[in-house]
Amino acid sequence: MYNCTSGEINPITWFKFGLLTKECAINNPTKYVMLYPGFSYHQNRFIHKIKLYLLQFLPAYVFDIILKTQGAKPIMMKIAKRLQMAMDACL
Asked: What distance in Å separates the CA atoms of residue 7 and residue 47, rounded to the nearest whole number?
């Protein structure tokens, strides 16, 4: 688990945080990694929502279908929704 803070002494931008997170995920993958994280930032909410559904919710839904056909419990949409709720809490 990681904890990250920023302040006036050593500030960090969201862009830099995204790069560091991606680097850590690639260098230290979890046992069950399916996709590596990617980050992009937009000021246009419409573009953001389109990318959110195409790149986060659609793959989660497809993975859940695959899990269900294999007899496993579909959990990816639940994880994607929780991730989105956490990101919304930061706004």
From this structure: 30
CA–CA dist 4, 2 (Å, integer) = 7
**Closest of 34, 37, 32 to residue 17, by C-alpha:** 37
User: pLDDT (tens digit, 9 = 90+) per residue, 3-30?
Assistant: 667 678 878 887 888 888 888 888 888 7
Q: What is the dihedral of CA 71, 84, 89, 10, to 10 degrees?
A: 110
Single pTM value for the model: 0.61
- Helix (H) or strand (E) run with residue 49 in it: helix 45-52
Domain coordinates of the chain in residue numbers? 1-39, 42-91
39 contacts: CB under 8 Å, gap ≥ 6: 15, 18, 19, 21, 22
